[in-house]
Amino acid sequence: MQNQYEVVVIGGGPAGLAAAIQADKEGAKVLLIEREARLGGILKQCIHDGFGLIRFGEKLSGPEYVERYVEELKDRQIACKVLTFVTEITKEKEGFLLTAVNREGVSEFGARTIVLATGCRERTAKQVSIHGTRPAGVFTAGAAQHLVNLSGLMPARRCVILGSGDIGLIMARRLTLESAEVLGVYEVKPEPSGLTRNIVQCLEDYQIPLHLSCTVTRVFGEERLTGVEVMRVDEAMRPIPGTEERIDCDALILSVGLIPENEMAESIGVTLYPGTKGPVCDENFMTDVDGVFSCGNALHVNDLVDYVSESGELAGRAAARYTAGEQPEKVEIRPDASLQYAVPQMITVQAAGGEGESREVVLFFRSRETVRDADFVIELDGKTVFSKHYGVLRPPEMERVLVKLGGLDIKSDSKISVSIKKREAR
Amino acid sequence: MDRKTLERKLNRKLEKHYGSAVQARVEKECIRMTGTLDDWGDIVSACAMCAKKGARLHVVNDILLEGAEIPKMRLPQVQDETLEGEKPDVLIIGGGISGASIARELSKWKLDILLVEKEADLAVQASGRNDGEVHPGVDLNKGTLKQHYVLLGNRMFGKVCRELQVPFQRCGQYVGFTKRWMYPLVWAYVWHRKHICKVKDTVILSSKELKKKEKNLNPDIRFAMYNPSAGSVCPYGLTIAYGENAVRNGAKVSLNTAVLEMESANGRIKSVLTNRGRIYPRLVVNAAGVFAEDVAEMAGDRFYSIHPRKGTNSILDKKAGMLVKGIASIKTIQKNTGHTKGGGIVHTVHDNLLVGPDAIETYEKENFATAQKSVDAVFAKQKMTAERLSERDIITYFTGVRPATFEEDFVIERGRKVKNLIHCAGIQSPGLTTAPAVALDIEKMAVEYLKKEMPVVRNEKFQPVRKAIPVLRAMPKEKRDAMIKQNPDYGVIVCRCEEISKGEILDALKSPIAVPTVDGVKKRLRPGMGRCQGGFCMPLVINIISDYLNIPPEDVRKGGSESVITYGKTKEAK
Amino acid sequence: MKELTCIVCPNGCTLQVEKNGEEWKVTGGRCRRGEAFAIAEMTNPVRTICTTVATSFKDVPVLPVRVSGDIPKKRIFDVMEEINKVKVTERLGRGAVVIENVLGLGVDVIVTSGILAEQGQI
């Protein structure tokens, strides 16, 4: 059948591109579906540099990074449909049936496996309980970035940024370069959410103040925003009455978190993990629905695109190699309270000395708190089987470890736990 | 009771509460309250104390509020002469559900109809800011206009929504009770409502029966009052549909048009001044919502007062939609404060949940600001209705201001001192439900009046059916495919959350009352109403509007003329 | 001694810089690149800029560009001003030079995206 594919990748951002290319390298018949007119996902508008240091050893801008993959996709002549929107996925006896719309009409595709690389969306003003009027001039950082970098339009002249997430910091610098005044960045948490280097090169370089333990509680203005109210917050991040301060400005830009987009995953029964809001997956990034894989920011929010591409590759490869039928048993990897999460959440059982001997597993994790001089530890049935030392671990910075499974006996009733252990505590 | 006796009685009551600060004067057409108080809540209580439900004499509030300034009506920025010298047979003031439905019913007649609305779109105030419930009327007592019209209006909804192609669901309303001892009281209430008030569909469900229909409600509910006739509709969608159908049938709608003053003589309105010129109507319909009293004053016919009451609703993600399939609320023994219906949970026609509203008296008629405490209070209450309700699912919230009279009833009648005026005022809840029925009566009143002045004949070309913008996401595959083959823009998805195509957006820009702004498109189609709240699609919608109108993208507005989204091109903005 | 956060890569190491006579001593970094960064920070801090230039094409109103190498931090806004004067009128591809040797700083302003050169896009 012409419309039958072994791997259908949904999403043409860095994760999806890597997945499609890798699946193609494995010899699978691949289709990539992208809802926007151009491939590249959010990197199209991330014109700042700093991408690709790990993968290419170069400091690339977002478009430069992603266009390398786009070109490889084209060179490999991988089937690709842009401006095509998947409306429905249904499980068939064998594989899946996808329905999509584009300018040609409604079409259907058969897929043995699906790789979901649907990315994430931004949390909005209402989701962080900002009240007041609803004027023009409230933008998520991503929307502001689209307007500035793709549409060439100025969304602000004098603005306040809420949230010290990376996109917010990047936009603070970007708007300053375009001669807007950024009055300050406000962060509800006691420490910044973005990477330290971005605090330095986006805020400190331009003398933009960062106000920690502060939040925006209200906006003013009827038609266009005329000001915001900021308040200090207590340890529980609740605004402290009496600390209200009004700041006159014409825009509020929000960088208050990203949420993996998994509405499609949920529609086919994929279980989401509360810690990541992405699917529960195994070391091949396969979800708990056999044949459905997840990668990139849809799986969990990354701070480096290099890891997004890596997860795409791993998912793409696994999807290409997937064979239907009885799947091997899996056991849970349990993070303790020292971690926000660890991905994958499941791992395939293996006998020591068996086939899986040479297996390597990529594990991503995020610390719950900032800790210094600590080890990331994996315990199998009470025995430490992996440990890596870190000078400092910070919640905004996701860490990646490569774990060799050689010699490990992972049984179906094994208990695997992961944790961060402080050195002085031991 | 004669006027003097009533006046003495009211003043004795007032003196007990407010000393000599407030007085009531019983006049021929109203009870006028005068004096000075420094708290708006006290003013409302003093007026409410003197108001009697169903009475012909309404309370008019002239009590001064000390220490605060009551904001003036916000006016559109535009100033031109586009309406100068217009002589419509009927001038309708207000483009909410009342004004729009009246315009549509009047368009069955060969009349020159002009509707003016001060906002940049229809349904911006109360009609765009409510929960969209089509009420069964079970909470209302006989003898009020509300009750009279709610029964008529509710029955009309199926037909009206079919004609206007507006989604409507009779999803049923459940009021749960947790105390078994209340059963006899509720039984008696239901009997009364069913047989005396003629809300014939009212029944009591056992907890088991309730569970079959709504499995996620509070398990402590012992029994529930159920009205299958209750429904839900998109309130601004219905208003716009009425407006569009009126325009298709010859009526004119002028947005961004505010009434500034009127010239009256010999008990007649001679002319009406707007920011877009002076209009000379034969008949004026006052459907000005919270400003109906101000319009009445301009006309010299102010015999009622509006006390604005605001309420906040939260909108929950569609993911939470399965929690409640109909409309649900709970009655506990704590007394409801204020005049709220208590709020509830409504499953909307778009499968979101609406939670709320609360009810707060305010002197600011256009303060739509939301506050966290309103959201919190509503959630605290509604978690008793459905315990799995979660603040985490909130995607947005909004505040509406309801125009209530002190009698808490509608004012639907001809002017008392002014002949060529019809009031459609005090239209608070269930004003959306009543609108179709009220509009028919106002149509009758208007035609009857006009027939004395001019020949009024049927509009032979009246087309009751409004063609809605196609909703592609709801179509079967084959039909959707055929539509896209005809117009490929239907296959270009712009809003990913609500699955809205470029073709649909272009249809909205070409609709009979086109409002080429981001909010105008959003109201007609919903891009920006989903979980991303426009983060992804807003820049794309700007581009589509800019291309369609052939204007620079920086000239595209969010809503009103001052709601600038971008300040120009990046390289030029300095 | 001065403490700096290295911005060379996302690791963001905390560096300690000390001057020993004419020699700079840098500690705390995970790699060598931090050393060069820290010394530059103390003597002549440099940065790179990424921005856009205006074009005359409606489908791509602005085109991403960056400087081909680091420029002195204090010249950032001067360079921005130069970049803002440019209007691209040809469908330039990635890597194309928009301004040669901008302000004599020895670096070019180059296009970083193929968006404009792509044909037949919507």
From TrEMBL, chain A:
Keyword ATP-binding: no
Protein's recorded name: NAD(P)/FAD-dependent oxidoreductase
Domain FAD/NAD(P)-binding: 5-299
Pfam families attached to this UniProt entry: Pyr_redox_2 (PF07992)
Keywords: Oxidoreductase
TrEMBL record, chain B:
SUPFAM superfamilies assigned: FAD/NAD(P)-binding domain
InterPro entries: BFD-like_2Fe2S-bd_dom, BFD-like_2Fe2S-bd_dom_sf, FAD-dep_OxRdtase, FAD/NAD-bd_sf, G3P_Oxidase/Oxidoreductase
Domain annotation FAD dependent oxidoreductase: ranges: 89-440
Ranges in coiled-coil conformation: none
Ranges of residues in domain BFD-like [2Fe-2S]-binding: 493-546
Pfam families on file: DAO (PF01266), Fer2_BFD (PF04324)
PANTHER family, A to Z: GLYCEROL 3-PHOSPHATE OXIDASE, GLYCEROL-3-PHOSPHATE DEHYDROGENASE
Name by which UniProt lists this protein: FAD-dependent oxidoreductase
Top-level taxonomy: Bacteria, Bacillati, Bacillota, Clostridia, Lachnospirales
UniProtKB/TrEMBL annotation, chain C:
Name assigned to this protein: DUF1667 domain-containing protein
InterPro entries reported for this sequence: CPE0013-like_sf, DUF1667
One Pfam family cited in the UniProt record for this chain: DUF1667
Source species of the chain: Bariatricus massiliensis
SUPFAM superfamilies hit by this protein: CPE0013-like
Highest taxon of the lineage: Bacteria
